[in-house]
Amino acid sequence: MSTNTLKYDTSKAKSLLREVSERSGQNLSACYQCRRCAAGCPVGEETGVTPDRLVRTVLLGDRDEALNNLLVWQCVACYTCGTRCPNNIQTARITETLKQMSKEAHLDPLKPRIADFHSSFMKAAGHYGRFNEIEGMGIYETKTAINELKKGGLKAVFDEMKAQAKLGMTMTKKKRMHFKIDKVKNVAEVKALYRRAKQGKGE
To answer: What Rg do the C-alpha atoms of the chain give, in angstroms?
Structure first.
């Protein structure tokens, strides 16, 4: 029976580990694969990748696999992994870092709608320091409609608009839809944080 030979490049492994560790603020080297994080991950079964496997991928220097897996896009940032980890490794911060690295590498997201929601959330929150449903969802729906139109999916656009209108009405009835634009007291501080983040990525 043949088996695949694992190719381990020390220089590539150290480079990827250093980059992800510095950008995420997590000590990935402290992971000793106890798999407590895997036992509590709510999306591990669906994505086929658990937090311990993702960390292992980075430690081995497999950049392609680290940037192209469903956990990066479907992590719900519940922080169960970090709560259970004996070394306090927060995978949500790692997946967020890998998501940013994937975008910087101009890779197509495995879950385009999640990527659109992520960028819409960040853009809306950057304006007032808080996420406002009307603005954020407006940006998201526009992105979704444009992507569907590019594929010629007019019916998909109509169905999406119909579904979101229904959702909006339900949220309004339950007083979960906020039409008032709320903002933090010092929006300038939030904008400054955004600028610092962009500068840190070399943009």
So the answer is: 20
